């Protein structure tokens, strides 16, 4: 019967599929496919599947084509011109060709070698075993006909297959599912649980098939202060007698212009990249693996060409930690990659400036570690953080200073080369000793003089009016095993900048695979898994099924731990899955970390994290949503578990509308929730001209920060923002606490969280259309709802007052227009660069008037 026929096919595929990879089919459009190599009685064929996002069960895949590997079959690997690029493969069978792209890495190399081995030295195949896959009915489980080396199967009117003359049939392109049980898919590599089981066991037994081989990594960091290269970089980059295997070269302050800051565009990228390529060690040939840049922070990653084939899974990311946690004048860029069997991450960062801001630098470091996320090759897997890598190399202008010593005493210690005494007053050393930042990282002994600050073009300490205390701002650290530092030094002969470049040579032990040992370990694992899968089903226990988060506040991170214990006899795979008719597995204010994973014979802690931001606060403030959700924890080949999440949210002025706040004379948290919910939809006239919260922040800045240097450009402290938020929401203090920078950032966050901006979404397009006409711009503002118009006029008047003190606060029209136009005149969807320029032009009209 049909059912027995399907089960027989499932058993057949389960037993005979040797390898599988994910690929992109290069047709008119690129489409994802699964490509499997199937063997039966020394005959081979490629099975091409279409698939859904997660190919776990048979209902997730469709058998699209079957390509017998016969004398009419050939494969050609297109030469790779870019290091780290995917592998393009051209398959030829009969007179037709198919081109696909396979992911760069060892899995693809193994798959192609097996395909090549299957093609070589075989007797004339018959492929009789493939006839069971031809379409012989319209019922469930039908699959496409197969091209063979002796003919092709086509369809007759009654649905039966007949063999015609030599050639290749257009195999079925429509979407029909091959019915299958879970066991079939779970036993095919790349199809979910089984692949993860094998990966986990391979990782546990890694020492059985790898050995350590040392490679030299050159790490360099240079804050170039916006200068163009005026001298050769060879004294810095080629300081070693032997050429290093890798170069990781980081720059900061590549370009200090406003264009670079606001639009992330600079010609200096190419200028410094050219200078680096000319400065690399002349005794070796290098390939550029990756360039990544965020405004003035740039990282270049080079490798000796002979090592290129062993690099895979290259990903690059950037995180801005400037004002509001977005601006890229401070932050980090990073590259992660796999080299042989070791995973590495290289980070180049520029942390907050000024001697007193060490807490802000600590916060920047923590933000970079939590927000820098690298996608994995398998899009269904959660992203990797920096600290998930076995080796982390961190360089950059970390900006930690020497504190508690006056400038003359510091210079005297430097003159005596008493770097040990001086280092005891180094902020980074103290913070690392207290385990506040860079926990688990190492830094070599510093026996060179501080690299900041010099008069540009000289070796003289800063002679400006500020006369800054010399400091080791530029640092190189590492984290991981089998790492030995060969040297750590500065390069005094380079005088382009007010910093000196720093370099370090690290000898790093890399895990290299012994292919024979790997094959044996792999086969042993597969045999043991076969036995386990036949005997056991997975089972877990959860520590608790209900969680309550009390008194959650705006932008306050809250977390509870769900402990998942594997109490079965077999490793298992878990995932939080979507509920019916919902777009994600959880509400947007909730995340589970990790949301999916693999659990061996042990336990795992899952962090259930609640965070209310500008996207989710409006509906929680208005009572349209509550902190309630149910998570469905799915166990592959097992049952589902239900986790209840509840909580209470404290309403905040952040995320409330201008209209609602103008009706509140009292702080929002002193009002009953029912009253707040009524005011959201109320049509009554406003009680206040502008929200009192905006008045409190602007009045504070007007009185205390009109001459504050770098106002609205230097971030505040998160701890101070939380106190300011509570003060605005509860009215407990008459004046705002915290630094001027924290109050300024709080104002920006408030404007960013408005559900409808100061210039409402409804008139956004009109603002773009008339951005060059000052008369039309003023007319749009005059027609705004009264409370929105009042806020706009109040804010622009305040900004014009700030511009009168530009000699002190270093603000100008361009800076303020760029920052505030993005908050006051914004669309409900993402802006392009042209729209950003037009909104800036629109807003400038209101700053230029009366500014002189």
From TrEMBL:
InterPro entries noted in UniProt: Endo/exonu/phosph_ase_sf (IPR036691), Ig-like_fold (IPR013783), INPP5B_PH_dom (IPR031896), IP5 (IPR046985), IPPc (IPR000300), OCRL-1_2_ASH (IPR048869), OCRL1/INPP5B_INPP5c (IPR037793), Rho_GTPase_activation_prot (IPR008936)
Predominant subcellular localization, coarse grouping: membrane
Top-rank taxon: Eukaryota
GO molecular function list: inositol-1,4,5-trisphosphate 5-phosphatase activity; phosphatidylinositol-4,5-bisphosphate 5-phosphatase activity
Localization (cell): Cytoplasmic vesicle, Phagosome membrane; Early endosome membrane
SUPFAM superfamilies tied to this protein: DNase I-like, GTPase activation domain, GAP
GO cellular component, one term: early endosome membrane
GO biological process entries: cilium assembly; Kupffer's vesicle development; melanosome transport; phosphatidylinositol dephosphorylation; pronephric duct morphogenesis; response to epinephrine; signal transduction
Family designation: Belongs to the inositol 1,4,5-trisphosphate 5-phosphatase type II family.
Name the record gives this protein: phosphoinositide 5-phosphatase
Organism: Electrophorus electricus
Phylogenetic classification of the source organism: Eukaryota, Metazoa, Chordata, Craniata, Vertebrata
Underlying gene: INPP5B
């Amino acid at each position: 019967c049909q059912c027995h026929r399907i089960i027989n096919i499932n058993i057949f595929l389960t037993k005979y599929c040797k390898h599988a990879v994910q690929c992109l089919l290069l047709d008119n459009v690129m489409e994802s496919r699964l490509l499997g190599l199937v063997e039966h009685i020394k005959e081979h064929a490629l099975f091409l599947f279409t698939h859904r996002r997660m190919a776990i069960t048979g209902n997730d895949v469709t058998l699209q084509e079957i390509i017998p590997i016969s004398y009419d079959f050939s494969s050609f690997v297109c030469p790779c011109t870019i290091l780290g690029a995917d592998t393009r493969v051209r398959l030829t069978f009969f007179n037709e060709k198919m081109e696909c792209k396979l992911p760069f890495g060892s899995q693809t190399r193994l798959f192609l070698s097996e395909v090549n081995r299957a093609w070589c030295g075989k007797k004339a195949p018959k492929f009789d075993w493939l006839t069971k896959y031809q379409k012989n009915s319209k019922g469930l489980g039908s699959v496409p006909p197969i091209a063979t080396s002796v003919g092709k199967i086509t369809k007759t009117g009654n649905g039966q297959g007949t063999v015609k003359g030599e050639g290749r049939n257009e195999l079925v392109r429509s979407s029909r599912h091959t019915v299958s049980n879970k066991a079939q898919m779970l036993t095919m590599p790349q199809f979910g649980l089984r692949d993860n089981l094998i990966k986990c066991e391979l990782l546990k037994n890694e020492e059985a098939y790898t050995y350590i081989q040392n490679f030299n990594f050159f790490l360099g960091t240079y804050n170039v202060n916006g200068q163009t290269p005026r001298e050769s970089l060879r004294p810095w980059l080629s300081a070693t007698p032997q050429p290093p295997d890798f170069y990781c070269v980081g720059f900061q302050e590549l370009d200090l212009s406003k264009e670079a800051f606001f639009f992330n565009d600079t010609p200096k990228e190419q200028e410094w990249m050219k200078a680096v390529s000319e400065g690399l060690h002349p005794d070796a040939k290098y390939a550029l693996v990756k360039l990544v840049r965020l405004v003035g922070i740039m990282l270049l990653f080079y490798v000796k060409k002979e090592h290129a084939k062993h690099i895979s899974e290259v990903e690059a990311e950037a995180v801005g930690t400037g004002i509001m946690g977005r601006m890229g004048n401070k932050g980090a860029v990073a590259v992660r990659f796999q080299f042989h069997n070791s995973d590495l991450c290289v980070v180049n960062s520029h942390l907050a400036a000024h001697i007193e801001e060490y807490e802000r630098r600590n916060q920047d470091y923590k933000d970079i570690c939590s927000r820098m996320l690298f996608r994995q090759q398998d899009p269904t897997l959660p992203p990797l953080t920096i600290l998930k890598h076995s080796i982390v190399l961190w360089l950059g202008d970390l900006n930690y200073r020497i504190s508690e010593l006056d400038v003359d005493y510091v210079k005297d210690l430097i003159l005596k080369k008493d770097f040990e005494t001086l280092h005891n007053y180094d902020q980074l050393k103290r913070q690392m000793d207290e385990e506040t930042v860079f926990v688990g990282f190492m830094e070599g002994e510093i026996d060179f003089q501080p690299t900041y600050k010099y008069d540009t073009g000289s070796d003289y300490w800063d002679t400006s009016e500020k006369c800054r205390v010399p400091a080791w701002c530029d640092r190189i650290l590492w984290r991981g095993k089998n790492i030995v530092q060969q040297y750590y030094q500065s390069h005094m002969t380079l005088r382009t900048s007010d910093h000196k470049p720093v370099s370090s040579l690290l000898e790093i032990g890399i895990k290299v695979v012994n292919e024979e040992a790997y094959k044996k370990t792999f086969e042993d694992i597969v045999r043991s898994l076969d036995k386990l899968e036949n005997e056991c089903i997975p089972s877990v226990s959860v520590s608790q099924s209900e969680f309550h988060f009390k008194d959650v506040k705006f932008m306050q991170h809250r977390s509870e731990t769900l402990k998942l214990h594997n109490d079965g006899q077999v490793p298992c795979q878990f995932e939080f899955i979507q509920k019916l008719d919902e777009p994600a597995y959880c509400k947007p204010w909730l995340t589970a970390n990790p949301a999916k994973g693999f659990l061996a014979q042990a336990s795992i802690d899952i962090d259930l994290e609640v965070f209310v931001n500008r996207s989710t606060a409006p509906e929680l403030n208005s009572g349209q949503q509550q902190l309630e959700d149910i998570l469905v924890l799915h166990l592959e080949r097992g049952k589902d578990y239900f986790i209840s999440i509840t909580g209470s949210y404290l309403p905040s002025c952040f995320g409330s509308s201008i209209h609602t706040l103008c009706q509140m004379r009292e702080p929002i948290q002193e009002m009953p929730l029912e009253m707040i919910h009524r005011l959201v939809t109320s049509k009554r006239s406003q009680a206040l001209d502008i929200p009192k919260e905006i008045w409190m922040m602007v009045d504070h800045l007007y009185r205390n920060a009109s001459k504050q240097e770098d106002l609205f450009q230097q971030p505040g402290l998160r701890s101070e923002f939380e106190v300011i938020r509570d003060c605005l929401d509860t009215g407990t203090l008459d004046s705002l606490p915290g630094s001027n920078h924290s109050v300024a950032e709080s104002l920006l966050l408030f404007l960013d969280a408005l559900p409808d901006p100061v210039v409402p979404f409804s008139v956004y397009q009109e603002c773009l259309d008339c951005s060059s006409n000052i008369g039309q711009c003023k007319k749009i503002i005059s027609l705004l709802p009264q409370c929105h118009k009042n806020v706009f006029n109040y804010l622009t008047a305040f900004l014009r007052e700030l511009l009168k003190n530009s000699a002190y606060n270093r603000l100008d029209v361009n800076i303020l227009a760029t920052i505030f136009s993005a908050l006051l005149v914004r669309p409900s969807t993402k802006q392009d660069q042209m729209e950003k320029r037009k909104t800036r032009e629109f807003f400038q009209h209101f700053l230029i008037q009366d500014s002189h």
